[in-house]
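Still learning folds. Look over my entry:

…
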Amino acid sequence: MLVAVPLPAAVSEALAIARPGGRVLLFAQNDPHMKIEFAAADIGVEEKEILGSYSAALDRQQESANLVFSRALPVSALITHRFSLEEFGAALSLAARPNNSLKILVIP
């Protein structure tokens, strides 16, 4: 489960619908003052995991966008594997156990 919005309620909702033993990835939850509450049983009894991933701070987003959209940064070279939508399972398997892969693209 991926939570990519800075809303504490979304984390609680993601934990509620994740399967026992599942993982919830918090993407860009970098507000130092935000507090998130959830049921302790989600972690202790159902053994769900909460993981974090950092995204660039707001003050760096414009610089990043300029590098990408001006094509000064060759971002397409970062894509090491491309899969069709029908190959989604293989793409997911590779992402779960990366082997010489950097970025994986699924093309609809």
